[in-house]
Records
---
Amino acid sequence: MRVVLVCLLNLLIGSDGWTDTKIRKFPKQFMFGAASAAYQVEGAWDADGKGESIWDRFVHDSPEIVVDGINGDVASDSYHLWRRDVEMLRELGVDFYRFSISWPRVLPNGYPTSINEAGFAYYDSLIEELITHGIHPMVTLYHFDLPQYLQDLGGWTNPLSSQWFEDYARVVFDRYADKVKLWITVNQPNTICIDGYGSNAMAPGLNLKSKEAYECVKNVLLGHAKAYRLYEKVYKKKHDGNVGISLALNWFDPFDNSTINAEAVERAREFEIGMYMRPIFSKTGDFPTLVKTTVAKKSQEQGFTTSKLPTLTPEEITLIKGSADFLGMNHYTTFLVKASNKQHMTPSYAADLHADYSQGAQWKPAKSPWLKSAPYGLYKVCIYLNKEYDYPTMIITEHGWSTAAGLGDQSRADNIRQYLSALLLAMEDGTEMRGYTAWSLMDNIEWTAGTSERFGLYQVDFDSPTKERTARLSALVYKNIIETREVDPQWEPSSLNIKITSKNVKAEL
Ligand code: PNW
């Protein structure tokens, strides 16, 4: 009798206890893509008239900062291997390729007064090759590599920086508006500003603890908005493209249900998400009230006469508010938040935020120390954004997983499947998600982690002069998801051979 009951139960709920057997499909118009960024893949750091970027300067001045000593000087050599890169995208069967343009490659000193035709020729070829093969280019204008010339003028802390960015954007829009219909202005302002100016984790690595990181946030948001308004005014009617911004949108849950940690998670959400979301995507615009009051209070305690957080004028609020056709979501992981027990002696972003992060002890770890798998967090951040920001139109512009070198990346294949399953549930519950981008198409320079953390669907052999690329297991799993438009946790490829298969459905943008 017991055996029969157990069998019956297994039949009903499956032996793993999973009751939900509904097959969910990605809608026909849903787009799949893969991503990279200029500094991380291109190499050719000083070729053909390219100007120096803040990342070139950062790693050349302090080589010890890169874990394994492999920097972006050569990287994955995509500057020369773009034909093979597009071939890989065709093997995967993606609808679009997200890549970034290196500002100093096309405008060596940052200004449109000197345009480097040879640098543009590289992007001309790449874009042409993509379009020939029916793959939409999704261009990021800024992915962390500011021209060093502009950094010497203060970089993103200079109030003129938003104008520099608009001027750069105009040159690129003029050149590619007829071919590129998907644009990302900037990638992860929090990384640019908090990690680049407020710490030494990312270039320019200035570790400034006064107002600079917040000034940077304001200028990056203004630069984004000016580029958006420019496109809206000059190009939109004729070319009908869409312009968005990519924000780091990880999920933050309270460590436990104490009141003090409920307050801490609220701070984390407003400092890490709201600081960038509210100005652009809320009805009122401006920085979040909680961030304004918290930073003002801390600033006073620390002896500043005014808040470290700059104010946005009514004109600036209006300029920034609504300046996106879609929200680019970069989602990797979830953090559990506690009120900090640290005594922050010097003023800093961390002191203002006053929260400590940890992650679930049971969550599977990736190679990167900050990255653990918690697919439920993707579901929760979607539902949170829907509630706080009234169902924004979104594209996941990055999601990924790091491993050591090796082709048998079962953990990445599982991670993609689990997160895409969570995404399907979020979409079923109303999330307006239009696409998904795997980070990354291939192994690349993971900033100061060098090549010690591999994010690629394709492995890159950094020791070989030809930087040979080979599909990993995850590439085949992703290809199968794109082909079938569903996630089958059981599916396994018969070999690691990957071939170009022609698709019959092409996404309409
Ligand atoms: C992104 N986190 O950065 C960047 O846009 C990419 O250039 C980078 O290679 C990729 O993700 C992997 O790191 C992130 O702590 C850095 O949650 C840190 C986090 C998330 C994204």
Note: Residues 27-484 form a domain with the TIM Barrel fold (CATH 3.20.20.80).
---
Amino acid sequence: MTEIDTLTIHRPDDWHVHLRDGQMMEAVLPYTAQQFGRAIVMPNLVPPVMTAKAGAEYRDRINKALPSGSTFEPLMTAYLTDNTDPADLEAGFKDGIFTAAKLYPAGATTNSDSGVTNFANIHAVLDKMEELTMPLLVHGEVTDPSIDIFDREHVFIKRVMEPTLDRYQGLKVVFEHITTSAAVDFVRSQGPRVGATITVHHLMINRTDIFKGGIHPHLYCLPIAKREQHRLALREAATSGEAQFFLGTDTAPHAVNAKESACGCAGIFSALSAVELYAQVFDEEQALDQFEAFASLNGPAFYGLDPNADKVTLKREAWQVPDAIEVADGSTVQPFLAGETLNWKLV
Ligand code: DOR
Ligand code: ZN
């Protein structure tokens, strides 16, 4: 078989990104905007993006921070709480401010304290979203402290996903950043109204990597990486080309001193080389022919959008991931696989 050395595809989109705000946003946004046509922007700021007004203001700040000439389009999400007003959510959706709404179980991850404490509190919101066919994006982990951290996604499927999808037969749901073979099977069993994003780090690392020769805080994220068998199931799903699986980096920058700490923050900053890292995975799986579906076609189709009109080219070329990027406040952020050599490069 002849080796493929260049790959031209419709410009990819990132269906799950943390752009942050202020100086951190200014530091990380150019990497996402350079590679992707659009991105679903997560709302877990402090305070979170809870209203259509806050969503419009955050979108303005992102657009102002974009490099000049950029055509990148941020797609905004609303942060659901026990008190979300269905009328405000509806207005935000109809005005084109919100593309979707994000559900964080309260306490599940970074800045999720104002999240939903009980699904019973948001029935009116979910009824409205079902009626609007507004996608619900779910951080799928239970917060029950008695459940082992490695089992939280699996238990969420049984306790929350299944009953919610049963009750709302028309609700469109994205199971975000899936990490287990159980989630892969579950998504497949639900058919086209359920999609799933898969991060590149969950395709590349397993839970043993986090502890190899010592603890690696820059490989800590939520949901935490699972056993090797799960990583392999995710690789199989991503490279299958199946319409339900699409690219979502969950790139989540934190300053190095917040990661390398007695209580380090969860989040992996992969935006610097996201498309190249995914291409590497597809190449390793001899599935480059499925890369465009996963990166550029399946996501827009799920969201009812056209693929990006323009194209990007990737070339087989060795390059080294930088050790750090600088933020204007003097802090630095360490990219995923800092210092390592990658073998695909966006032209
Ligand atoms: O690792 C993570 N970091 N997982 C999340 O769900 C949130 C994110 C963040 O915002 O830092
Ligand atoms: Zn996230």
Note: The two ends are 24 Å apart (CA to CA).
